[in-house]
Amino acid sequence: SGLLSRLETSAPTVRTLSSSKSFSQNIPSCLWKLGRLNHVAIAVPDLEKAQSLYKDVLGAQVSEAVALPEHGVYTVFVELGNTKLELLHPLGEKSPIASFLQKNKTGGMHHICIEVDDIKAAMTGLKEKKIRILSEEPKIGAHGKPVIFLHPKDCHGVLVELEQA
């Protein structure tokens, strides 16, 4: 009985989290909701080579290139099971992708795109939280839906695109 009583008195105390507060109570309520990851955009210096990699080498379904003059890019979408990759190539001298590729000669991740259920409400809420939006109004993106971009310095170094779902 001496060993058993020593074990009972030296057993560590186990602490449990109080279940009275749920984790979701710590999340501020918004008038808009963040949705799924729509795509990851990759800037590429050679669009044909990049298309070939994903189509011919990796076997993905790859779209034709589409020019988006308002954004200064050519886009190609690579279909994946749960999301897409967007290959971006410069269109015109003022393309933001051209300046990106000057700094990153071999290309690289440019931005992520996340869907939102209400882009106008998202803009209002983000402005209230001092997140800079790179345009005054949404533009029509590659999927024909309104999009905005959030300043990377306000998003931990990541350029974030929000797209109306």
Automatic annotation (TrEMBL):
Q: What InterPro entries has UniProt attached to this entry?
A: Glyas_Bleomycin-R_OHBP_Dase, MeMalonyl-CoA_epimerase, MMCE/EMCE_epimerase, VOC_core
* Entry's Gene Ontology cellular component terms: mitochondrion
Q: Has the keyword Magnesium been applied to this entry?
A: no
Q: Which organism is it from?
A: Callaeas wilsoni
**What Pfam families has UniProt attached to this entry?**
Glyoxalase_4
Q: Which reaction does it catalyse?
A: (R)-methylmalonyl-CoA = (S)-methylmalonyl-CoA
Question: Which residues does the UniProt record annotate as the domain VOC?
Answer: 36-165
Q: SUPFAM superfamilies attached here?
A: Glyoxalase/Bleomycin resistance protein/Dihydroxybiphenyl dioxygenase
- Give the gene name: Mcee
Keywords in alphabetical order? Cobalt, Isomerase, Metal-binding
What protein does this entry describe?
A: Methylmalonyl-CoA epimerase, mitochondrial
Enzyme Commission code(s) on record: 5.1.99.1
- Domain of life of the source: Eukaryota
One molecular function GO term is:
methylmalonyl-CoA epimerase activity
Q: What role is this protein assigned?
A: Methylmalonyl-CoA epimerase involved in propionyl-CoA metabolism.
Family as reported in the entry's similarity comment: Belongs to the methylmalonyl-CoA epimerase family.
GO BP terms in the entry: L-methylmalonyl-CoA metabolic process
